[in-house]
Design goal:
- By secondary structure, the chain is an all-alpha fold.
- Helix content is 71%, strand content 0%.
- It is built from 13 helices and no strands.
- About 11% of the residues have low confidence.
């Protein structure tokens, strides 16, 4: 390149207008906040501002992975665990062990299985399962909506926390089963009373975990959203709610378990239908196999409900990867 051309190029560069400053569009707020939340490693261990060299996940050496083997191992170990439990149950009931724990009246796995096949063809047992499932879904849904909404407000706003939280803390230690007499007097029907007991059992775990999740959100993310022009509603929806989701789903999982405990207790005391009523009626009629069937049914239904919550959590939080402490 000649000297004349080089001078002309420099003059063109100096005469060209400076590049315009690009402004952040409001629509990119969610993406920026999510990037800041999960960090460059995508696991949420850094705040997105620190250099990648300081991130422990990025500094960790990449391990060689083998596909499909961990799932097969989990299935095999789960089958062995279930088989060991059934084997111990069979031996204890077959030989009628009578030590400190008495197995004289406990039915064998074979008799329970035969009775389950018999009940499966009876409409009344399926109706009881459907009624208990309906009560759980109604009470748990109401508790989730109210618990999450109120938890966001209590965790975010000091005035709401000072006004509402003391009264809730007084009511929280009262067991849901202790509310049964009061619920019968408060509500016009037993059905509504049982749903109310189910609601109480799941409400407080959801509420407390939501409040804890809101308090755990990094203030840097809130300031970053404010600097990008987000209003209070967008901060609450995009930053605080997303940041508190892991704690919220922990509360939902715990609340579902407590809801089943409360439901079965309420059905045993004041119900006329449901799995809890079926189990208590079997005890009154000395139908030992049906007692075990009722217990197994409660466990399977509770496991299915918890599994649905975990699946929903994976769909709503794709940035969180499962991690097992001490994994080798």
């Amino acid at each position: 390149m000649s000297i004349t051309n080089l001078k002309k190029t420099q003059e063109d560069d100096e005469s060209s207008p400076p590049p315009s400053v690009t402004t952040w569009p409001t629509t990119a707020l969610a993406e920026v906040v999510e990037l800041a939340a999960i960090g460059p490693c995508g696991k949420g261990c850094c705040d997105g501002i620190a250099a990648p060299a300081t991130c422990p996940e990025l500094r960790r050496p990449v391990a060689r992975t083998w596909p499909a083997l961990p799932n097969l191992q989990a299935l095999v170990l789960g089958a062995l665990s279930l088989g060991f439990f059934l084997g111990m149950w069979y031996l204890a009931t077959h030989y009628r062990l009578d030590w400190y724990i008495r197995f004289n009246n406990i039915p064998t796995p074979g008799s329970v299985f035969e009775k389950a096949l018999e009940l499966w063809h009876k409409d009344q047992f399926l109706v009881n399962m459907g009624i208990s499932t309906r009560r759980i879904l109604i009470g748990f849904t109401i508790a989730s909506v109210i618990g999450i909404s109120l938890g966001l407000l209590i965790g975010r706003y000091r005035l709401v926390r000072q006004l509402v939280f003391p009264s809730l803390e007084v009511l929280r230690p009262i067991p849901a089963i202790a509310w049964v007499p009061m619920a019968i007097m408060l509500w016009p029907t037993n059905e509504v009373s049982i749903i109310f007991i189910t609601f109480l059992g799941s409400f407080f775990p959801i509420l407390l975990n939501t409040v804890h999740g809101v308090n755990s959100v990094d203030p840097v993310l809130i300031r970053a959203a404010r600097s990008l022009g987000a209003n209070e509603f967008n901060v609450l929806r995009l930053v605080i709610l997303n940041g508190a989701l892991p704690h919220i789903f922990t509360g939902l999982t715990v609340g579902m378990g407590v809801a089943w405990v409360s439901l079965i207790a309420a059905e045993m005391i004041s119900g006329q239908f449901g799995v809890g009523y079926f189990t208590w009626e079997a005890y009154s009629l000395i139908q030992y196999s049906e007692i075990v069937i009722g217990m197994i049914t409660i466990g399977v239904l509770g496991l299915a409900c918890s599994g649905m919550i975990r699946l929903l959590g994976k769909l709503l939080m794709p940035w969180i990867k499962p991690h097992v402490g001490g994994e080798h």
